[in-house]
Design brief:
- Pfam families: NUDIX.
- The chain is an alpha+beta fold.
- It has one domain: Alpha-Beta Complex (Nucleoside Triphosphate Pyrophosphohydrolase), CATH 3.90.79.10.
- Helices cover about 15% and strands about 35% of the residues.
- Strands 1, 2, 3, 4, 5, 6, 7, 8 and 9 form a nine-stranded mixed β-sheet that branches.
- The longest helix is centred in the middle third of the chain and has 13 residues.
Length: about 170
């Protein structure tokens, strides 16, 4: 998979690792911290099927990105990752099978709000699950890293490439 989203202009004094649609920027990826549920404002999941990465097309943003989202009250980041993956894609990966990969620091939109999110990864060996379109996600795709997709969130694909060497096998 190619690394998309070349570093862009400074954001809050930091040079982003990648930039993408909707003025999003990946400011940092910390793969050395221990998992800490209190540190996460959101979660992302890199789910692999062989060499293919699972992406979702979010209706409200009309953008291809990694499955994930916000934590619900009382939920750990790991629980949120498993739930968001199931809700958004139909893929079921037990919490204990999700591997914590690190924390992504992102800047969102023109207001430059900065959030820290936990990134988890897993590998599915069997046939991918069934997806049913819903109010949030219009479609899913197992992406080969080469196919051109309209409005690809290059921040997410860059993050997936950074975590690839640590992905579960």
């Amino acid at each position: 998979m190619e690394l998309d989203g070349e570093p862009g202009e400074d954001v809050g004094g930091r040079r982003p690792l990648a930039t993408g649609p909707r003025q999003m920027a990946l400011l940092d990826f910390d793969r050395h911290s221990a998992e800490d549920a209190r540190r996460s404002g959101y979660v992302l999941v890199t789910l692999w099927h062989g060499e293919l990465l699972l992406l979702v097309r979010v209706r409200g943003r009309d953008c291809w990105e990694l499955p994930g989202g916000r934590l619900e009250p009382g939920e750990t980041a790991r629980q949120a990752a498993a739930r968001e993956l199931r809700e958004e894609t139909g893929e079921f990966v037990p919490e204990e099978k999700l591997r914590f990969l690190g924390y992504a620091t992102t800047s969102l939109g023109p207001e430059r709000r900065v959030l820290v999110g936990a990134v988890f990864g897993a590998e599915v060996a069997g046939a991918p699950g069934r997806f049913t379109a819903n109010d949030e996600i219009s479609e899913v795709r197992w992406w080969d890293g080469v196919e051109a997709l309209p409005r690809l969130q290059t921040v997410d694909t860059h993050l997936a490439a950074l975590t690839r060497e640590n992905r579960p096998r």
